[in-house]
Automatic annotation (TrEMBL):
It catalyses: Hydrolysis of terminal, non-reducing beta-D-glucosyl residues with release of beta-D-glucose. GO terms for biological process: cellulose catabolic process. It holds the Pfam family Glyco_hydro_1. Signal peptide: none annotated. It comes from Glarea lozoyensis (strain ATCC 20868 / MF5171). InterPro entries: GH, GH_1_N_CS, Glyco_hydro_1. It is an enzyme of class 3 (hydrolase). This is beta-glucosidase. One of its GO terms (molecular function) is cellobiose glucosidase activity.
Amino acid sequence: MVGKVLDKDFLWGFATASYQIEGAPEEDGRGPSIWDKFCKIPGKIAGASSGDVACDTYHRTGEDIALLKETGAKAYRFSISWSRVIPLGGRNDPINQAGLDFYVKFVDDLLAEGIIPMVTLFHWDLPNELDERYGGLLNKEEFVADYANYARVLFKAMPKVKHWITFNEPWCSSILGYNTGLFAPGHTSDRSKSAVGDSSTEPWIVGHNFLVAHGTAVKIYREEFKPKDGGIIGITLNGDGVYPWDPNDPLDVEAAERKLEFSISWFADPIYLGDYPASMRKQLGSRLPTFSSEDLALVKGSNDFYGMNHYTANYIKHKTTPADPNDFLGNLETLFESKSGDNIGPETQSFWLRPNPPAFRDLLLWISKRYGYPTVFCTENGTSLKGENDLPREQILDDEFRAEYFRGYIHALAEAVEQGAKIQGYMAWSLMDNFEWAEGYETRFGVTYVDYEGGQKRWLKKSAGVVGVEFKKYIKDE
Ligand code: GBH
């Protein structure tokens, strides 16, 4: 039995991202992002869909806030569309006041209802112009300078925001955007999928550039805004849990650790410990960039909190063959079944996602220990349901599987706190069904059903109420 281990001011709520919910891609002067462009390439997105309408949030922020109120959420994590605020993206390009005003008003509206805004500056939707102008994320000097300018514009316009996230899951933009090509801008060495890209080098360059851009924005916030505004700032990293495929094989135990290093420590080690993990250097050699003393000064120590997105776990089996130059996992296999035949968890609609709450607790403790017990905000956690999209509405609204997922994962979070982790917030993914990237609208992650055929009308599912009910068990009474 876990008791009331969470602080009174523990922040719980729900998360979304701009391109996945807003729609209105050309309204009020918004410029195109790399996702607008990527969605137009035939074959990239299930159902040939895009974020053109999505949840129509650009016209329905009032409805979204009403949903948050109904769930009792204390906080809401959302992201800003860079190309709404600076349509061309660059530091010498004009600011679009209407786009900026949209977010400023939204923050005011949230606060008026007592909901704390947690703002992500970048959730993958880079202004397309920057990609065309100078290679976007691949161009360190230009990207870092343009991102720094963009971040400063937002810090200045929204002093009421006290929780800032620089980047969402740089792993995804780097690996899925520049190795497998599954995500925008779709670079890969596989010439059947893309005319450009080098999967063996580009993701590591992009990852490095994210770190330097993050460090630069944090320096700006700490020097120019934090003294008067008093907020905190960090980066959000994704990371799946791991179990050795054969716990009695030291090579599988080592491979499981290496999997965490290739996904999490790639970014977190430089930030907390000052360099890339030795396992990555060993496998990637000079393809992994090195830190100049200037870059390192920006990156090391640049997190006020650790933002953690977490969904699932795998059994990890080491490989005996030398690593492929395009490998990004750490030369290992990720499996759903262990050597002894244990299954990691039930199937969902997402091929990569199977619930396993204990792995969440273990990973929270692994991160806490490795990085000196930092303040952690879980910035995403949630699940899809196998076949949910094919069910009639009444059944979609009765999402017991998702409700049970939240019960298990929130309990695991409380257990981790009981064992020493310093967790101060939790945002469930997602407030509502939305554009699930390459999977289009077939996969739903919302605690709210969005009727895409019926004018984007929203209906709360059963799971929407469960998050608050669960946290009530673990948060100390006021
Ligand atoms: C989050 O990423 C995103 O932040 C959010 O926008 C999204 O809607 C949500 O998940 C649900 O998908 O293709 O085999 O290499 C979750 C972390 C990490 C999950 C990468 C998918 C890809 C596995 N993602 N993973 S693979």
